[in-house]
Structure prediction request, 192 residues.
Amino acid sequence: MVQQIFEFFDQQSDLEKLTNVSIRHIDALYFSAKQIFAVVSYDSPSSLENHWERAAYQFAYRVQNQLPGELDDLRWDMYLVLFVDAQEISNALKKRIESNRFFFRKIIITSSDLNRLAEKLPLDFQTKLPEHQLERLWFHDRHFLQQWQSCVQQSTNERLSKALFQAEDQSVDKLLSSLNIPVLAEVLSHED
Prediction:
């Protein structure tokens, strides 16, 4: 399945595959004048969890650390793409790895993400998507609320009104009142 990622990168006209460089723990390297990608594949979430740091250190030491001065700006546009051959991984593991911005950004791709690589990878912004899929590029408030709901602790989730997560178009005042947050005018009136 990692082959689909290689094929995707091979199809990007701005990216070149480095074929004359072999780095332990890295399956492939792709570069352009703007970005560098390292691709690593794992056969299970536990393998990812136990070995991703090895790939990160190798990518940092063998590529980022060796960039000549004129390419120094590229160190801010380096990405470690970690493919795991599983439909999904735990949110905690994904958050722990992707939140680690030490050296460069880490991006986890699962087998369920393979049909959305253009959306998941930070390539130059391209709108080559069919028009009916362009709506997926926009992030709506309800998406934030649904993601937030899935991330907060159960006790917090229970305290929040379900109306907050199920409401389609609520005003800010309604949302604040459902969270029992006082309106600014009420707070200011108590300061007198």
